[in-house]
Amino acid sequence: MNCSQVREYFDEYYNSELNSETKNLVQQHLNECKECSSEYSAFLELKKQAASLKKEVMPPKQIFEKIEKELSGKNKMKTDIKITPLSNNILTIDFNEEKKSSAEQKPQNFLGRNWYWLATAAVFLLIVSVVFMNYSSKNVFSVEEMSNWKLISLKGGAIVNGVRTEKVNVGDWIQTDSVSSVILKIANVGDVSIEPNTKVRFIQSDNNVSRIEVLYGTVNTTTSQADKFILQSSNMKVQDKGGSYSFKVDDKGNGVIYVNNGIANVESGNKSAVVTDGKFCLYKPEFGVGIPFRKDSKPEFQNALFNYDFNNGGMPSVYYAIANAMPEDYASLMNLIPRVDEKTKYLVLNKLNRLAPMAMPTINIDSLDYFDDEDIEKSFKDMHGKIKVELNFNKDELAKEMDELAKELGNMKMKIKIDTKKMAEDIKKEMANLKIELINLGNLSDTNEMKIYLKGFDQEEFKKDMEKMRIELNENLGKMAEELKKNSKEWEKNSEEWEKNSEEWEKNSKDWEEYGKKWEKWGEEFGKNFTPGKFNFKFDSLNIKIEGLEDLEQLEELKIDTTKGKKSLHFKFDRDKKDNMKKDKKKNNEDGKDDEEKSEEI
Amino acid sequence: MANITENISDTELISQCVSGSADAFRFIYEKFSRRVYALALRLCGNQDAADDLTQEVFIKTWEGLSSFKGESALYSWIHKICINCFLMKLRADKNYEKKIAGSSENPLMLAYNNDDISLDLEKALQKLPPQAKLVFILFEIEGYGHKEISKMLNIEEGTSKAHLHKARKILREELAK
Fold first, then answer.
1. Is A163 inside any structural domain?
2. For A137-188, how does the pLDDT look when each residue is reduced to its tens digit (9 = 90+)?
3. Both B42 and B72 in a single domain?
4. Are A367 and B18 a contacting pair at CB < 8 A?
5. I need a surface site. Which of A29, A369, B82, B140 has the fewest CB within 10 A?
6. Cβ-nearest to A56 among B18, B34, B51
7. Chain segment A203-254, per-residue pLDDT in tens
8. Which residues of B touch A87 (CB under 8 A)?
9. Does A412 lie in the same domain as A292?
10. Buried b / exposed e across A264-297, counting CB within 10 Å, b at 16+?
């Protein structure tokens, strides 16, 4: 028994769960191996500390008050949740069940205890009971509404279990021909489009996750929620993290995935990849999932990854890929980290730092050994919006790309042939950048046999450099944030002024509107009383309002000018006369009755 | 209150709760809230999120008591509600991870003396990635096996073991600092 096997058994050994033979082997190894013995001591120490952690903490009083308040508004014991035993010890809770009566929630026998699962199965049978309507006449059918899954349309013909039929049951294969397609709507999750020449099987959903198995063909998905939909073929599965992606698998099980937006986790056996928007990911049953890549990356980069993933390219292919990586390849590089040895992890990280420094703060260098899919996904989420290279395919272009990739995967050949000389030069150049000495490049004539030996890489120094760069980056980010804050204050101030100005403009515009209306009215009146060619005005009915001219008494001169082909009216009036009149009027008012008599005379 | 609750069996309390007794429910709360709160603080890392989680757990407990069959101990059942509620929050809210970022001043940390070695472990726990932290808490502190954890978290048993291994490794590194 070797060290790693023994360490795997620590928990079982500690809990006395091993059979006597294995127990003795572990015991013997621990007696003989100092490293494992010390590892086991550390294991025991951590267990001891964990056992001594506090098991109880007094909650604040307000919590119960809030609970009481919340419950006082509800009907007593009328629950909208269902708690069902999954096994003897595990419970699952579905909070979305509709409210059931108390009697329904008190099942007494086996059937009752398991009603939920039986009901789920029944619902599922209903879900996949497809009814073809007007199939022959319109070549399109609608399907009866189902509680969770709903087939909304099918164009062309569909074959279920080898025959054309109107019903589909759980586990049945559905086959589309060259002109048919099915759109499956999954409630609160999204749409799955089953394209022509595809064969799929609806698999019963569990734990609110819907599954579809694809034997061959193309399926496009668009989902709004993460972890609610799984697409699988015989050896792999695609866990949807929300977004849209296309999945194509040929009759030999070779697969191509393209993520249009969002994230999809692809798993097969011991390999997995986190595929983000704009990336393709290939899968071959005997090799597993490849590293995601962009179709517009350098052909050498794509080729190197292809050789690494599916052609036993080994480390030379990884170095060749690193040497040819571009900034937009950061996602591919991150996916490489969990798959390569310790030294190469740092090489990838170094390249990543040069190409996409914004990615660095999302990676914990200290636990690089444990950098896995979960960490990649988290990094992508943290970086969301910071690094994004747009890549848009229309549907036909995408279908063509996927067809070509599937073909290349089937033939095991990429379009670009390896130029071993160029490869060696590229790797040498890359290593020079990394300050690493290349001891031996091995046999250059055959890529797969080329061996690379490196020396001169100081991991601790590298870590320090990284930390320094990370601090610098954070400082820069801080400065940027401060500047933004400062700018935003100025913007705020400006916007206040703009607001103030706009209020004034609004007020002015109302005045202008009023003036406009007045002029319009005047124009109308003027038009009525104006006979073109005769210059005949009827002043008694002409209503002219001019600011400052309130009384005809003020009017001293009125002239019609028709010189130079223009027709205009000239007014001359005395503003002061108006003020004098006002004064006179005021004076008259103050004089009482006598004034009235005077005004009558006026 | 604690003495009274200890003298009444869980079955009796449940029966009274199902009949609508708010007092019986208060006894259940008094009996189990401290353990639930400690778990919530450890899972969430900060007090606000732990308060919300504890509140939600006991509301779900009240609402679900009528369907409780007594196949497991009442505390085990409430405890599983707590973990399920936490997982649902984690899955439903993409920002929940940020909301539950650990704080060194939550009531769990304050329950230790400054020189207590367990305080270091509590702090180190909050530095673990969410899945690794969850698996470590369930396995090492709450006593579940990998089989149960894998079903609870909907992951493979091997993945549960890998998370535990990762958690132990990081914790040891953190504690060695």
1. no
2. 222 222 323 334 555 444 444 555 555 544 555 566 777 777 777 777 676 7
3. yes
4. no
5. A369
6. B34
7. 755 556 778 888 889 998 888 878 878 888 877 889 888 788 899 998 888 8
8. 148, 151
9. yes
10. bbbbbeebbbbbbbbbbbbbbbebbbbbbbbbeb
